[in-house]
Amino acid sequence: MDLASERPAAELKIRRGGPGGPVQYEHFTFIFEDGQSVLDALRWIRGNRDATLAVRYSCINANACKECVMRIDGRTGYACTTPLRSGEMLIEPLPNKRLIRDLVTDTLPPDERLT
Amino acid sequence: MSQYLETDVLIIGAGGAGMYAAIAAAEAGARVLLLDKSLIGRSGATVMAQMTVAAAIGEEEPDDWRFHLKDTIAAGRGLVNEPLARILCETGPDRIWQMEEWGVGWARKGNHITQAHAPGHDRKRCVYVDFLNTGPASARILRNQVRRHDTIRRISDLFVTDLVTQDGRAAGAVALHLETGQAVTIAAKATVIATGGLTSMYSRNSASANMGGDGFALGLRAGAELIDMEFVQFFPIGHLAPRLIGMDPIMWDPFRYKLGGRLLNGDMQEFTQNYGAPEDGKYVVTRDAATYAIVKEVAAGRGSPHGGAWLSFEHIPDEDLRAAFGPVIDRLAAAGIDLTKMPIEVYPIAHYHMGGLRVDDSLATSIANLFAAGEAVGGANGANRLSGNAITEAFVFGELAGRSAAAIAPNAAGMDIRDAAAPFLATLEGASGRPGQGPSPTAAIAALQTILQQDVGPFRTAESLNRAIAGITALTAALPDMPTGTQAAFNQQLADWFGLRNMLLVARSIATAALARTESRGAHQREDYPGLDEAWTYNQVLRLQGGEIQLARGEVRRLAPEEA
Ligand SMILES: Cc1cc2nc3c(=O)[nH]c(=O)nc-3n(C[C@H](O)[C@H](O)[C@H](O)COP(=O)(O)OP(=O)(O)OC[C@H]3O[C@@H](n4cnc5c(N)ncnc54)[C@H](O)[C@@H]3O)c2cc1C
Ligand code: FES
């Protein structure tokens, strides 16, 4: 079985930048295999394309930490449980939380913050 | 600008051990600062555990902590620190009942708590929360208990980068606040390292991203001793493919034993018989034999597409599968996995680390005012851990370390650590002004994971270990002296630099100890030194001297017959 052949490609359109800055989108192509998640693609981008991409996650496979919550194709979801699909996917930070940078928003319980 | 905080007890890491320590220290009257580089109680191993917790509560059948201790010592292959193991086994039941009081909801049958019979235990001893909910339920209960104490301050996203010592004593820490990039200094009368294990240093693991062995490096650099670093536990048939989210990657093993799962190579042929372990139609080859056969078959180029072995349940009747897997079958179906029609791919994955900080029976390290708890502690499990002992260890050692730390805090003088912290702060604070240079730490971490997986994995030789040490040395030389990064807010590159610096030191500790131990024992298997050698029945103790790792031999601590 040759895994490399005929693998689908996700075109990730990712919103970048911090609060108050201009709205910027960057495009990344990720060749994936069935079952791979949006988080798999974002981690690959950090490791292989742009290590400055801010995206928070801990558990990767367990869907236990709930840190990877973001906006995917206009809907709120976990990057680690959302499967990739071919074609363009729009990846943005949560719109209703304070933006920290790129895909990271302030989702901490208020009494767990450093103030 | 940097912040300066003060507390009685500083607890680094908020998994099961750290949260339990916080509760115990607060109940003993101390002011506590509980922090985590990610989220409090959500980001380490504890919340991810789905299986069982071992404790001799005797609900299912009569039991005694002495029986549990006997099994723990047997599993540890001669290297268990017996007084520590005794604490684990003797007080385990107290913690299980306390968690029950707090509402964790251990699974019950009728009027008693159910206990499963896990491998290595002489009887039914392991409690759990249905369904596959042990870790999440435990973490939730502990978070709730922590929140009830006004004297516990919790801070998430605070990554401790160095411990601060003053006059030879632990006096606090410096940390990176991830959200802002700000440096934080914390002065503490007592400090507890509860940072968990190191398995994310391997490319195939069951870990979260936060299990990179920080606590071992923090301890070493502050002058503390480590023990048993060569013993990394691999789980023989960890899930490899297809991609599966939300399930414990170690879940296949109990099903394989229960039902008999066939291990097949890339050509769909049985292969374990070629390594002296025939399936004989029963398909229950032991864990160590399965690990060996899979690693060798893949190395010989006969692996499955993702570089593992196939595990097939296709020969089991549908109704038997459903009876054994229960609702798991539906979760698998939702992920596109139909076990009646397809095999899945498995490979040995790094799962737990037996070694860690060397402590006494109050969980104090060799540095005054510095304690350790949970998976960060070495010794209680010797060369190999019994299943279910790790969560018990997190609860028991957490509670004890919290109490011990609170007990010394009133006597310890609160020190001003600004001067002692200054050099560490300098490393932290300059970073955002320095534009990126040199290789990306993010990529170097991946390279290190590959080195450890290939050459410091479940099977080692002098050749593979020397190769690993050379690779670690090269990565260390390439690591820039100072972290860099142009972003202040949520700069993971910066965190990766600190993480990598720790991992390189810890990787060197594992490889150095593994190279020295010229025998095979428990989780440390040397292909060039097969078989256990009685002359090696002692622990290896590591410390950092002049930037170099020094190895020494430590006598295994035993109990007198009347104490066990
Ligand atoms: C998938 C999985 C399943 C498991 N299943 C079982 C099981 O069924 N039964 C069992 O007994 N054991 C099991 N184990 C092992 C067990 O879960 C762990 O050994 C135990 O939970 C460790 O608890 P801990 O509190 O020591 O560490 P953790 O729960 O890992 O917590 C450590 C915390 O420290 C934080 N931290 C790390 N470094 C820093 C730093 N520099 N600064 C600040 N914070 C830091 C981390 O973010 C993390 O939150 C399993 C492990 C895994 C990974
Ligand atoms: S990474 Fe933990 S829930 Fe998604």
Helix content of chain B: 25-40%
Shape of chain A: globular
Quaternary structure: heterodimer
Major sheet characteristics of chain A: 5 strands, mixed
Biggest beta-sheet profile of chain B? 7 strands, mixed
> Which structural category do the helix and sheet elements of chain A fall into?
mainly beta
Which descriptor suits the 3D outline of chain B? globular
Whole-angstrom Rg of chain A = 15 Å
Question: Can you write the helix and strand succession of chain A as a string?
Answer: EEHEEEEE
Structural features, described:
- The complex is a heterodimer of chains A (115) and B (564).
- Chain A has one helix at residues 38-48; strands at residues 9-16, 24-31, 69-72, 75-78, 87-92, 99-101, 104-105.
- Chain A is mainly beta and 115 residues long.
- With 564 residues, chain B is an alpha/beta fold.
- Chain B is built from 14 helices and 21 strands.
- In chain B, strand 20 (539-545) and strand 21 (548-554) form a beta hairpin.
- In chain B, 58% of the residues are buried.
- The model of chain B has no long low-confidence stretch (mean pLDDT 93).
- The interface between A and B is large, with 41 and 52 residues.
- The site of flavin-adenine dinucleotide has 43 residues of chain B, from helix 1, strand 8 and helix 10.
